[in-house]
Amino acid sequence: MNMLDFITKLLAATLAMGTSLAYATVGEVYTQKTGILNLGMEGIMLMGALAGFSTAFNTGNLYLALMMAMLVGGFFSLIHAFLCITMRANQVPAGLAITMFGTGLANFLGERLGPASNGYNLTGMNIPDKFSNIAIPFLSDIPIIGALFDVSLLTYALYILIPFAWFFMYKTKHGMVVRAVGENPRTAASMGISVTRIRYVYTVIGGMLAGLGGACLSLSFTPSWNEGMTSGKGWIVIALVIFSTWNPGRVVIGTLVFGGITSLQFSLQAAGLKMVIPSQFLGFSPYLITLVALAAMTIINQKKRGSFASPSALGTSFAIDDK
Amino acid sequence: MSELTTDETPVVRMVNITKHFPGVLANDQVDLALHRGEVLALLGENGAGKSTLMNMLVGLYQADSGEIFVKGELVDINSPQDSMALGIGMIHQEFMLVGNMSVAENIVLGMKGLPFVPPMAEIREKITELSKRYGLQVYPDKIIQDLSVGEQQRVEILKLLYRGADILILDEPTAVLTPGEARDLNEILKKMLAEGKSAIFITHKMDEVMEFSHTVQVLRRGKSVSVCPTKTIERVQDLANMMVGRDILFSLERGSYNPGATKIEVKDLLALPVGGGKPVLDNISFTVREGEIFGVAGVAGNGQQQLSEALTGLLKVNGGTISLNGKDMTNKTPLQVIKAGVSHIPADRGRMGVVGDMSVGDNLSMKKYRTSELSAHNIIKRGLVRKFADRLIDLFTIKTPNQDTSVKFLSGGNIQKTILAREIDSCGGILVAVYPSRGLDVGATEAVRQNIIKQRDKGCAVVLVSEELEELLMVADKIAVMFEGRIMDIVDAKDAKTEELGMLMAGVERRDI
Amino acid sequence: MKFRLEKRDYRSTRMAVLVPVVSLLVSFILGAIVLLISDANPFQAYAAMLKGAFGSQTKLQYTLVKSIPLLLCGLAVGIAFRLKFWNIGAEGQYVGGVIGITWVMQFWTFLPTTLLLPVGMVVGILFGAMWGGIPGVLKAQWSVDETLTTLMMNYIIIGFAEYLYFNAWKAPRGNMGTVLYPKEAWLPRIWGRVHGGIFFALILVGILWFVLYKTRWGFELNMIGKNKRAAECQGVSIKKNIILAMLLSGAIAGLAGVIDAAAVTHQLTKGVDSGYGFTGIIIAWMSGLNPIISIIVSVIMAAIETGSDALQMTMKLPNAMGAVLQGLILIPLLAGNIFIEYRLLVIKNRKEVTA
After folding, report:
1. DSSP letter string over B352-421?
2. I need a surface site. Which of B75, B125, B464, B506 has the fewest CB within 10 A?
């Protein structure tokens, strides 16, 4: 295997790995931009993965599977929205609750929604169809960047979603409202914007995208369901939001870097580096790198100000007659 | 103000408006009428219900009962969008602007009928045209947080004009302005009135009432107590009495001025903001002696807050020295500063002064819990704390059901008295008080001022930061005026003139006055 | 008809008690729906769980044994939560404790066997403290978000532990797990399976209660947790206390790991990431961060876990049911907390207000 080939393969793997993260991160960016911190991503993504897989398993319809994943993701984030917005609960424990409940329920249902022949277990089952890669002729033959044109439909959709998410946030009137609500909810309210409604809407949309992100894991690549299969990706998403400095356009960079590290780890393991570095070390390296990057990023951002800052009202509840 | 001649139906008529908040009757059967081209001054103490009444007119709150007529028609205002559609717009006391968005974005934010992708070029043009017409200079692409307070207020006015408001509500618009800026605002208002717009002006400054308004309406404890044409008012004192319902003290008891040894010595203090930029404290030097009240005047946001935080160890400075009682205390921790005898009445009561979720007793003991008076061997003696708290509650007449009530359930005045009690009780010779009477009613304000003077008479060195010149002239011995992080001048309070201080506050150099 | 929340002018103690109890009930009702959806009879299932948790002396002992690390993790998390420091890394700090004691047991053979247990416990506690202290320092010095750092550190140490029991420290025989600790160094049992760790846990409850409610430091932690800025103005050092609290929190979670390893597993092996650290979050929140109430809550949580193990044995239902119920408790609890300080008003129409 020559170097060029290796890089192309790595990029392909990166895109596959990053797709799931990118959906969820765009979703969480929007949620946080309205001032709601949703730490339930891990649970929501896992529920999305389960909903997607079990729907595909039982109906064979991949698009129905995506819709179910989004529906379930939306429902779970609706619970979060209800807790944080209507009941003014602290957003951190509320998110943890969603993660714990979502993880538990997904793992429970994963052992109940399968076929009787497998003891109702979904683990180890296959689905008839999957989101496989579609190569665009000629473009996909270019070295390295060819990998960009040999991806699944889910990844192609991102090529549209991410620029759109950026455009929507910074150029449209709705994006303006989103930014205002997360930055200064009182002002938004005084301009006749319903802070409650906006926060509900974008928290639910964020959850739907996270559900979709979860489904990417179980419906493309090697489609399968495994207990706890998101293995912390929901938390990586929270870190990626910080790395993207709450800018949906910059989500690309974070997901590529993180997807790259993760797939590099797999390629290195495959390439036999196991002999030099234990596989477990490679296994936790993405989390270690996230930790280091997060610390570095936070320290650097403190020295600067302005556009890298989190939305001012992030994590706080709002009621107009609070004084 | 120009003469007002009108008999037509009022543009706004509020009838029998009542509004409850938990435990408070904020408005009790209030009537109000505003005519075309009229400026109505709504006068009253803090908590009299002025802002609540206006917030109902713009749809932020809804009345429990009563009716609102706009241009003769009965209306139902449920949201700011409803009021905007009727041509009513409000400039809130605390500006309603999104700090990290541009001027243009702020002006069109949430507007009905805006296209999916707002045409920013057109919007910019319209803003420029409006700003020329009224003499409100702003740059549509600037980011709000880079603007001065005066500029931000212009954006607020433009926001209303852009949306075609012809009934303007201004909630204490001059509170944050220098006297010069306030005069500019007056000019702009005149232009708008000439076009047939009308305005309601909330204030508690009597001179502004006399200067700007046609009609005065006074609210007291949620009730409308008087409405009369401004020109029929003969003495400002009468207005003040109407507001509070009794004669207010215009002077305070105080001992003679006999300053002793130097307690605070500040030299060439320099503080830079995080991330760089203009210094927030620029070459500050002064001394405060025993038995002296050192007043710090200035429009909010000119470094007074930072100065008080540097003195109390909360803000690290980048240059210069602070010595207390002759010892160098530059960049020491808050605890070291406290141990050097410094007490602090912070600017933001709720966020810095008290822990709202803890009891009155706990809050009172938050300085002394670490001393042998209330604890031994690191263990807090609950019995001693109870006695200590009861004594302070009595001494400072803090109104609370008992000392176990959470502080957040107390009124603003009693929260401030709790802080005052704790800080004065533990004071070791130096007191730093920042906006101590902000937002308090007349009674509580008097109590606060008298206690501060008492400390001075006992030989304490006091730094008093205030935005009210009136307060400083009444209480302080010396007055320093701050502007953009610098001290413009330090004057003796007894020879100080309001106009002169006003010029200094606006950044006019001494030699140019 | 509309609903509106209105702030009370006092804290309702009745609600403060009622809300957690009702939450527990609601979680079981919602759990029943989950069971119905997955074709199981909820009554049977709950009966099986109850029997599985308390049905016999052995089962009760199992439940109690489980409640010991849970209680300790709940205490650990509770201390950090007091400062609104969201330590979700008790899991990793627990694993740190197990690694520490295993290191001593396996490699400090120069020590007399009687000293292995106490020294191993101290080292394990220190490992836990270190693993909690790092995010504490990162937060205190540079305000690095602690939810993420503590969580990432879980994954790191769990991966590291895996490396140890699969590779570096693997016992010569078998394919995973370290060498069993010498029998003389095990934490002794006192009643059936219940071991001496229960004393450590209960004594710690007493100490923490005293420290948190009676000492100057407890008072300072309370101030910081409820209003950081005001505490700072009163001369309380936020940085120092965050680091101290996280060292303590990590140490207690480490102790949980140490005790479980010394008394139950006697080795470092697969399953060391048992989820106790996460359940500790629920315990801390449900007990209102009160160490004494944590005792009851941790027994309930342990019962849910042993009960759901029984569910798997007797009714062939996945034992993840336990996690579903535990996760479900937090939701009504968080939703209900608002009623402690607010009351619900039902507004029939705009002009009429009734309580």
Report:
1. II--TTSBHHHHHTTTGGGSTTTEETTEE-HHHHHHHHHHHHHHTT---S-TTSBGGGS-HHHHHHHHHH
2. B125
CA distance C232 to chain B (A): 7
- Which alpha helices (H) appear in B117-178, and where do they start and end? 120-134, 149-162
What is the residue type of A8?
Answer: T
B262-271: strand order across its sheet? B281-289, B262-271, B319-324, B327-328
- The residue with tokens 């650290």 is C277
Q: Considering the domain boundaries, does residue A313 fall inside one?
A: no
Nearest CA in chain A to C337: A89
Find the mean pLDDT for residues C99-124: 93
- Among the listed residues B499, B500, B473, B476, the one whose alpha carbon sits nearest the alpha carbon of residue B489: B500
Q: How far apart are CA A268 and CA B68, in angstroms?
A: 73
In whole angstroms, what separates CA B139 from the centre of its chain? Answer: 27
Say how far apart CA A195 and CA A321 lie, in whole Å. Answer: 13
- Helix axis angle, C197-214 to C57-82, nearest 10°: 30
Residue A143 within a domain: no
Q: Is the dihedral of CA B139, B144, B146, B149 positive or negative?
A: positive
Please name the residues between 227 and 286 in chain C that touch chain A, using a CB distance below 8 Å. 278, 281-282, 285
What's the complex ipTM? 0.88
Give the domain extent around A277.
3-134+150-303
**Residues in chain A, total:** 323
A275 and C119 in contact (C-beta within 8 Å)? Answer: no
Q: Is B345 helix (H, G, I), strand (E, B) or coil?
A: strand
* Positions of E strands within B204-247: 215-220, 223-229
Q: How far apart are CA A220 and CA A153, in angstroms?
A: 10
Number of H helices, E strands in chain A: 11, 2
Q: What is the pTM of this model?
A: 0.89
The 10 Å Cβ neighbour count of residue A119 is 12
**B80·A184 Cβ contact <8 A:** no
Which CATH number goes with the domain that contains A230? 1.10.3470
- pLDDT tens column, B444-503: 788 889 899 999 999 999 999 988 888 888 899 999 999 889 999 999 988 888 778 888
Please report the sign of the dihedral spanned by the C-alpha atoms of residue B442, residue B448, residue B452, residue B458. positive
Domains of chain B, CATH where assigned: 12-244 (3.40.50.300), 260-341+428-513 (3.40.50.300), 354-426 (no CATH)
Q: Which chains touch B (3 or more CB pairs under 8 A)?
A: A, C
Structurally, how many domains does chain A consist of?
1
Q: How far apart are CA B407 and CA A104, in angstroms?
A: 41
Q: What is the C-alpha to C-alpha distance for residues B147 and A306, in angstroms, rounded to an integer?
A: 14
Share of chain C above pLDDT 70, in %: 97
Are the C-beta atoms of residues B93 and B115 closer than 8 Å to each other?
A: no
Residue A308, token pair as written in the block = 């890298």
Which residue, chain included where needed, has tokens 């502004």?
B208
The dihedral of CA B95, B99, B101, B102: what is its sign? Answer: positive
Q: How far apart are CA B4 and CA B128, in angstroms?
A: 31
Nearest chain C alpha carbon to B65: C351
Closest by CA position to B466, among listed B474, B458, B454: B474
C143 touches chain A (CB under 8 A): yes
Q: Is the Cβ–Cβ distance between B464 and B486 less than 8 Å?
A: no
What's the pLDDT tens digit per position in A125-161?
Answer: 888 888 888 888 888 888 888 888 888 899 999 999 9
User: The tokens of A23 are what?
Assistant: 């959906």
